[in-house]
Amino acid sequence: MIESSAAMSMTPVFSVVLPCYNESETLPQLFSRFDEVLEGRNDLEVVFVNNGSKDNSSDIFAIQLAQPGRQWARLVDVTVNQGYGFGILAGLRATQGKFIGWTHADSQYDPHYVVEGFKRLIASPRPDRTILQGRRVGRNAFDAFFTAGMTLLSCLALGIRVSDVNAQPKLFPRALFDEVKNPPHDFSLDLYMLFLGRRLGYSIERMPVVFARRTFGEAKGGAGSLRLKWKLIKRTWAFIGQLRRDIRTGKL
C-alpha cells in the first residue's frame, strides 16, 4: 500500500475514509463537493482509498490532489483489490483523527452527511461511547424490504439490536477501532463494526440520509441487482456463522 497526500497543514480531529473501486467518473464531483462542505475547516481529513481500481482512477487522483486548497485530502493506494472491507481498514489505519469512520464514494451519499454526522456524534451525551450511523430514506419498497429482512436475520442470529446495517456514514471514536480483531475484508465489515460496538456497550445514534441514485457506474454491494443481493446474503450469513464460532471459542 502506498500513501500520498496534498500538503498537510492541519491536525485533524475527524477522519473519514472513502473506499474507491473504479470510481474515476465520480471522483471530480466528489472532490468538488468536499471543497464546498469543508470550506473554512481544518479539523477534518478525507482519506481516499484507491482500492485496486482497474480504470484510470490513479490519473484522476493525481489531478485532484494537485489542486490548491486540498490539504484535507489524503490517498492510500491499495495495489490489488482484496475487498471492500480491506480497503476501508487500510484507510482507517492511515487516519489521524480522534473520531473516525467511513462512507461510500459512489455519489449516493452526499459528503455533507459526513460533516453533519461528526457534528451529531460529538454533540451526543457520550461521544466516546457512541457510533453515528446513517438511516436511509427515500428508498424503493423492494430495497427497503430486503434491508429489513437482512437486519432481522442479523439481530436474531447475533442477539444484538441493529438497523439498516449497510447505511452510511459510520462514524465512531478511534477507541472502537482499537478493539478490532480479525475483521472481515468484504461488505460484512459494516455488520462487524456495529456488532463489536454493541458488544462493548456503545450506543448507536442514527441520522436520516437521502440515498440517491448512482450518477456513474454500477452498484457493488447489495443495492444493485438480485444477483448482487444474493451474493450479499451468502456472504453475510457465512460471516454471521464465523462470528458465532468466534464467540463460542473466545476469539471475540
TrEMBL record:
CDD domains the record matches: DPM_DPG-synthase_like
Keyword Transferase attributed: yes
InterPro entries: Glyco_trans_2-like (IPR001173), Glycosyltransferase_2 (IPR050256), Nucleotide-diphossugar_trans (IPR029044)
Domain of life: Bacteria
Residue ranges occupied by any Glycosyltransferase 2-like domain in the UniProt entry: 15-133
GO MF entry, a single one: transferase activity
Keyword Oxidoreductase applies: no
Keyword entries, A-Z: Transferase
Gene3D superfamilies: Spore Coat Polysaccharide Biosynthesis Protein SpsA, Chain A
One Pfam family it belongs to: Glycos_transf_2
Residue ranges that the Swiss-Prot or TrEMBL entry lists as coiled coil: none
Protein name as annotated: Glycosyl transferase family 2
Species this protein is from: Nibricoccus aquaticus
